[in-house]
Amino acid sequence: MIHKKTYYSRELEFEGRTLLLEGPISGKKIHEYDFHEGLNAFRIPEEQKKALIGIADLPEGRVNVVVDENTIVGYVTFVYPDTLERWSEANLDNLIELGAIEVAREYRGAKLGSNLLRFSMLDDAMEDYIIITTEYYWHWDLKGTGLSVWEYRDMMEKMMNAGGLEYMATDDPEISSHPANCLMVRIGKRVDNESILRFDNVRLSNRYLY
Fold it and tell me: What pLDDT shows up at residue 42?
């Protein structure tokens, strides 16, 4: 599969400032930007910036960002599932994972997460992919937001819905380990039936045991 990357950009007004949504951007461009110190949900900002550069330079990797002047204040990544995850067992070159989405806390009032996901789906190439995301409650910023597990789950589901991702059942043990965890999926308009079937066989690999 040829991973076509077409650059897009949009502007968004927030508290008297103009933010730039753009992507997919290159690792070189990420390197040239500053990286907001509040983007530390997964690792320290310096290490997360390096991780984004690595993803952006992969053939299938996509990094879309929100930029305030010269500083990245939010991002979303799309990449092949890790080879240790069950989703890679489908062996599909048109299955990608929304690996991470993060927005610096002071910018969350702009609903940048939802805006980033809507922006990401402007790219017609996304219609060639099955896009998945796995949500685990232990990754959520419950303390910082003051939300309960179920309030946060509802917020995350609505945000993913903005990008066209919908809840799908799975018997994956890690997701099934807590009822707040979930799998969300967007199937592009041009995805063939064989790919969908292979994905479903991984999504519900034990369904014939029930």
Answer: 87
Q: Is residue 3 part of a domain?
A: no
Q: Is residue 210 part of a domain?
A: no
Interatomic CA distance for residues 123 and 169, integer angstroms: 27
d(CA 202, CA 183): 12
Query: Using CA atoms, how far apart are residues 113 and 110, in angstroms rounded to an integer?
Result: 8
CATH code: domain of residue 201: 3.40.630.30
Domain annotation covers residue 120: yes
Phi–psi pair at 124, nearest 5 degrees: -60, -25
What is the C-alpha to C-alpha distance for residues 66 and 106, in angstroms, rounded to an integer?
13
Backbone CA torsion sign across 146, 150, 156, 158: negative
Rounded-to-integer distance, Cα 45 and Cα 75, Å: 12
* Cβ–Cβ under 8 Å, residues 124 and 6: yes
Q: What is the pLDDT of residues 54-86, one digit of tens each?
A: 999 999 999 999 999 999 999 999 999 998 889
Distance CA 31, CA 165 (A): 30
Residue 1 lies in a domain: no
Number of domains forming the structure of the chain: 1
* pLDDT < 50 stretches in the chain: 209-210
Q: Distance between CA atoms of 145 and 34, rounded to whole angstroms?
A: 25
